C-alpha cells in the first residue's frame, strides 16, 4: 500500500504570462516525488483548490481567502506589483469620474481583480456602478457597458490597441490610494496535503523557488517565449516581467492583509482572514 509521499501531487499552473518566471524551469517530471502539472485559467485553478481536486496551486489571492481555513501559503512566491501591474486594466471611452456610477463588464476569469475593482470603486473613487460578467472581449464589453475589466494576457493584448481609450491600471491606483503593494496571486497548498506529503511539498517548494531565481537571473528565455506565444516587442516583455514582484515578503503580506480587510468591510469576504505561511518546520502567521 503506497505511503502518502508516494501519491501523485496535483499542481495547478496559472495560464497567464505573469506567472511564467516561477513556472518556466519547473518540471514536474524531474521531481523525485510523483506530480502532475495542470494548466488552467485562475478561476478554474481556484475551484480546483477549493474543491480539493488540486493539491498545490498558484491561485488568485481572493480565492485563497475564501478557503483559507483549508489552505496554507507557500513562502517566497507570489505575483505582486508595487505600483502599475500592466495586466489588470479597466478600459473605458470616458474618464473614470464619468463612468464610476455606470455599468462595468467584468472578466469572468479572476476574483482578485474583480474585487479589487469593487474596493477601489466604492472606497477610493466613491462610485456605485452596476456590474455584470462578460467574456474577456474588449469590443464586446465596450458595446455593452461603460467600461470593461480585463486581466492577464487579454489585458496586455488590449492595451496594445487601446488608442483613444482611457486605461486605468488597478495596481497603480491601489498603490496611489493605499501606499501598499498589491498581491494578485499566491501559491497555496491544502492543509491536509501539507500534513501528509511533507517531503513532496519541500521538494516542490524548493523547485518553484529555484525556477523563480533562475528566471529572474536571466529573463531572456521567458521574454522570448512571451514574444513567440503572445506577440509584442522584447522591450515590452522585459519591462513587464522586471516590473512584477515574485516574492512574498513582509511588504507584500501587509498589502494583501489590507486588501482582505477592505474586502471584509465591503462584505466581499464573510470573515477576517489572517493568512498562514507553510514552512518546513513551523507555521508562521503573517505579521500584523
Automatic annotation (TrEMBL):
Pathway: Quinol/quinone metabolism; menaquinone biosynthesis
GO molecular function: hydro-lyase activity
Catalytic activity: chorismate = 3-[(1-carboxyvinyl)-oxy]benzoate + H2O
SUPFAM superfamilies: Periplasmic binding protein-like II (SSF53850)
E.C. number: 4.2.1.151
GO biological process: menaquinone biosynthetic process
InterPro entries: Menaquinone_biosynth, MqnA
Record key words, sorted: Lyase, Menaquinone biosynthesis
Entries under Pfam families matching the protein: VitK2_biosynth
Top-level division of the source organism's lineage: Bacteria
Homology family: Belongs to the MqnA/MqnD family. MqnA subfamily.
PANTHER family linked to this entry: CHORISMATE DEHYDRATASE
HAMAP family: MqnA
Free-text function comment from the UniProt entry: Catalyzes the dehydration of chorismate into 3-[(1-carboxyvinyl)oxy]benzoate, a step in the biosynthesis of menaquinone (MK, vitamin K2).
Protein's name in the database: Chorismate dehydratase
Species assigned in the record: Paenibacillus kribbensis
Designated gene of the protein: mqnA
Amino acid at each position: 500500500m503506497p505511503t502518502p509521499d508516494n501519491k501523485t501531487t496535483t499542481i495547478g499552473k496559472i495560464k497567464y504570462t505573469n506567472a511564467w518566471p516561477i513556472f518556466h524551469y519547473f518540471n514536474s517530471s524531474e521531481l523525485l516525488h510523483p506530480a502532475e502539472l495542470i494548466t488552467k485559467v485562475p478561476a478554474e485553478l481556484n475551484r480546483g483548490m477549493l474543491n480539493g481536486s488540486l493539491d498545490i496551486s498558484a491561485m488568485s489571492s481572493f480565492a485563497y481567502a475564501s478557503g483559507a481555513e483549508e489552505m496554507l501559503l507557500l513562502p517566497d512566491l507570489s505575483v505582486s506589483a508595487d505600483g502599475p501591474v500592466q495586466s489588470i486594466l479597466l478600459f473605458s471611452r470616458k474618464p473614470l469620474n464619468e463612468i464610476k456610477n455606470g455599468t462595468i463588464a467584468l472578466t469572468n476569469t479572476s476574483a482578485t481583480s474583480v474585487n479589487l475593482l469593487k474596493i477601489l470603486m466604492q472606497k477610493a473613487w466613491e462610485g456605485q456602478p452596476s456590474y455584470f460578467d462578460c467574456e474577456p472581449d474588449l469590443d464586446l464589453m465596450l458595446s455593452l457597458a461603460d467600461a470593461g475589466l480585463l486581466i492577464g494576457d487579454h489585458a496586455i493584448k488590449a492595451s496594445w490597441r487601446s488608442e483613444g481609450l482611457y486605461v486605468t491600471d488597478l495596481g497603480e491606483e491601489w498603490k496611489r490610494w493605499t501606499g501598499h503593494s498589491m498581491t494578485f496571486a499566491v501559491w497555496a497548498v491544502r492543509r491536509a496535503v501539507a500534513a501528509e506529503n511533507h517531503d513532496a511539498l519541500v521538494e516542490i517548494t524548493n523547485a518553484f523557488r529555484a525556477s523563480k531565481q533562475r528566471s529572474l537571473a536571466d529573463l531572456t528565455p521567458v521574454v522570448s517565449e512571451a514574444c513567440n506565444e503572445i506577440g509584442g516587442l522584447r522591450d515590452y516583455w522585459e519591462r513587464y516581467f522586471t516590473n512584477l514582484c515574485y516574492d512574498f515578503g513582509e511588504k507584500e503580506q501587509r498589502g494583501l492583509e489590507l486588501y482582505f480587510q477592505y474586502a471584509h468591510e465591503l462584505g466581499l469576504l464573510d470573515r477576517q482572514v489572517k493568512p498562514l505561511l507553510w514552512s518546513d518546520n513551523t507555521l508562521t502567521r503573517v505579521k500584523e
